[in-house]
Amino acid sequence: MKIIKLNAIDSTNSFLKDLAKNSTLENFTVVATDNQTNGRGQQETTWQSKPFKNLTFSVFIRFKNLAIQHKKYLNFAISLAVFEVLSDEKLPKLFIKWPNDILSANKKICGILIENTFIGDRIKNTIVGIGLNVNQIDFSNAIKSVTSLKIETNKDYNLDFLLKKIISKIEEKVQLLNSEKFDDLEQGYLKFLFKKNTTTMFKDSNGNLFMGIISGISKDGKLQVTLEDDLIKEFGIKEISFA
Ligand code: BTN
């Protein structure tokens, strides 16, 4: 791993995306900053992080042979890597919320933004952006319910140590991906999936509420929900949210 530390940057994902235009960029190059000024989240949201308190970083990963049809396993690998590092810290009620938020005590502790580049039917490379709330305890400006390692454990964390631990774990899970251990990744992910096999209230894209049970993830990464009439319906990221 090669870590490039920047004093401040708008978005580590955007910066690394520019670096990746150079086709010789080393695999597992990491860009990290203590002061990300315009962090990007999924679905055109923003990612806010108090300077010097948290981890905001991105990892460049090159693939030799990862088919687009296996894209969901990349998401499983990354989510599971972060999850496993956090589970060492004995956080309360730790789960992966589909597709790749990490929750502790029902609040978001980590967000992941995966941006792939394709060639034909293969994923050529990816930029994995991770925002992890670590030592920040004041979230009074947050719109959603969020938490941090420090809030949940009362401990202060060394950011560099945690960063290296997560990157190593990502390397380990990407090895599983490259050796096509897809079932291991899927089983690991499903084991810790938030609200799996639990009757849950959801909201569809029209704002309608409905009850269902998360039963799995489809081949193309959609959330499979069993509805009251035992029918299984599949939802994309824009089509469903937890009510
Ligand atoms: C989300 O939950 O919506 C994903 C948030 C991802 C935030 C990280 S912080 C480091 C990297 N750089 C960005 O601009 N975004 C990701």
Helix fraction, binned, reads 10-25%
Largest sheet: 7 strands, mixed
Bound molecules: biotin
Assign the CATH class of the largest domain: Alpha Beta
Order of helices and strands, N to C?
A: EHEEEEHEEEEHHHEEEEE
CATH superfamily of the largest domain: Bira Bifunctional Protein, Domain 2
Q: Would you identify the CATH architecture of the largest domain?
A: 2-Layer Sandwich
Low-confidence stretches: none
The CATH topology of the largest domain is BirA Bifunctional Protein, domain 2
User: What is the number of E strands?
Assistant: 14
Give the strand content. Answer: 25-35%
Q: What is the overall shape?
A: globular
Q: How are the strands of the largest sheet arranged?
A: 1-2-5-9-8-7-6
Explain the overall architecture.
This protein folds into two domains: 2-191, Bira Bifunctional Protein, Domain 2 (BirA Bifunctional Protein, domain 2, 2-Layer Sandwich); 199-242, SH3 type barrels. It is of the alpha+beta class. α2 (71-87) runs antiparallel to α4 and α2 crosses α5 (182-191). The longest helix has 20 residues, at 159-178. The protein has helices at 12-19, 71-87, 149-153, 159-178, 182-191; strands at residues 2-6, 29-33, 39-40, 46-47, 55-67, 94-97, 101-104, 107-119, 122-132, 199-204, 209-217, 223-226, 232-235, 240-242. β3 (39-40) and β4 form a beta hairpin. Biotin is lined by residues 11-13, 36, 39-42, 45, 47, 56-58, 101, 111-113, 129-131.
